[in-house]
Design a protein that fits this description.
Structural class: mainly alpha
Largest sheet: none
Shape: elongated
Distance between the termini: 71 Å
Number of strands: 0
Order of helices and strands: HHHH
């Protein structure tokens, strides 16, 4: 396909819209985020020291110093 598109007669024949359509053809098979395989039969080995976050406070409570009501 690159050889055909490099020929001057095809380069002059394609419009900007044609080139945009070809871009999707070339990039549709690429995953920029990588492949993440999920095995639902195995557990994640998390460290025992994992911290669980506490409950969230309202925005006005977060602006006040802790211990002040």
């Amino acid at each position: 396909m690159q050889q055909v598109l490099a020929e001057p007669e095809w380069a002059g024949r394609l419009t900007a819209e044609d080139w945009r359509a070809l871009t999707a053809l070339f990039w549709s098979n690429i995953n920029p985020y990588g492949t993440f395989r999920l095995d639902m039969d195995k557990r994640l080995e998390l460290p025992l020291s994992a911290v669980v976050p506490g409950p969230r406070r309202a925005a006005e409570d977060a602006a006040r110093p802790a211990g002040v009501s």
